[in-house]
Design goal:
single chain; 68 residues; mainly alpha
């Protein structure tokens, strides 16, 4: 899940949680919105952690052994 997908889930979840006043029988849209926001936030945190982890690695170029 990328940053864009995470932000999309957060936005759709917030719209369902706070802006939609309609009701659907058998489904609580507020709960669905909250779940989408939580999944989006978790995805965003994981994506950012992985991107920072990859950036912090020291790249040391390999040199060939001249004896080979």
């Amino acid at each position: 899940m990328g940053i864009g997908t995470s932000l999309l889930l957060i936005a759709v979840g917030a719209i369902l949680k706070f802006a939609v006043t309609e009701s659907v029988s058998g489904i609580k849209l507020e709960t669905v919105g909250a779940i989408l926001m939580v999944i989006g936030i978790i995805g965003l945190v994981i994506t950012l952690l992985l991107s920072f982890r990859d950036r912090d690695r020291d790249v040391v170029p390999r040199t060939r052994d001249p004896r080979l």
